Amino acid sequence: MNHLIQLRHTLHQFPETALEERQTAQRILEFFEPLSPDETFQNLGGTGLAFLFKGKKPGKRLLFRCELDGLPIEDLNPSDHQSQIPGKGHLCGHDGHMTILCGLGEKLAQNRPESGEVVLLFQPAEETGDGAKAVLSDSRFEQIRPDFAFALHNLPGYPLHQVVMRKGTFAAGSTGMSITLTGRTSHSAHPEAGINPAQALARLIQELPKLPQEANGFALLTLIHAELGSLAFGTSAGKGSLSMTLRAYDQQDLDELIEKVKTTAEAIATSEQLKVEFSFVEQFAVSVNDPSLYPEVEKAAKGLGLSLIEKPDPFRWSEDFGLFSQICPSFLFGLGAGENCPQLHAGTYDFPDELIETGVGMFEKLIDK
Ligand SMILES: [Zn+2]
Ligand SMILES: [Zn+2]
Question: How far is the CA of 39 from the centre of ligand 2 (A)?
């Protein structure tokens, strides 16, 4: 295990952010070379990598996914493996998740599955929600398209090694949405000669956060940014924008909320003679766990003697693993990172090395089934 901890520390020292993970991918590639996987896929969906290990007999194809990216946040934890890259840190534990799949790769190299195939996927750009989409739309994905897909995420705030599970939605779907209102500037002495979006913007700020109340299940709209005109005191504003994050536990609720925002904004814009445009970023599908896989994961946890809890509600945050749940039965579970572990994306966060062995063990048991 020591060499795996060493690998985790090296990955931690050199974090790369979404879609720039070239050096990280190179390191992973070098790790896998002596393991002789049957097939290696490079530059999947950008910087992604996949390694395929064939079993002794034909059968189902299992995919395990981890993430290559770090965050554009300073690593403030003064450890011997503190980030060497200013302003960037592995503060979501993706260094640990990668190491777990490397450990699993070693196990597979020593001992092939009885049947079927195992794909170890190192996906780029999870944090922006771009990576899963890019990998799934890569034409070579057909060669590794799984029958089942699994992933784990470490969870600060839960006892170390505890397995956190849910049937159905595990993590919310979400999207960033911007509304741009275009009117016409004029001299601030003659605002009546222009079309100023200020009133429309004010109405949107008041109206939009109320929309989730009409949803069937949990839905949330959080305003994150607003802009009107510029700091030119002689000019009546001619442009404004409002940005927000929408989230829901159910894909249909999320889609309906987006539609309601559009209709509301269109109605307000029309009444003020403004042009309205919409744009979307950081779109994450709802992560839905297939109930048929629940007993498998439960058995794996019990087999390792780990404590297990079923979370009553889904997590409000999102994971782009959600897209995998749209293409095959899939399961995402949490591994407790310790009750006193700093939260994900906090500057002081560091992946607990003890979880490497637990993660490898969980995935190995899922292959045994
Ligand atoms: Zn994260
Ligand atoms: Zn993460």
Answer: 27
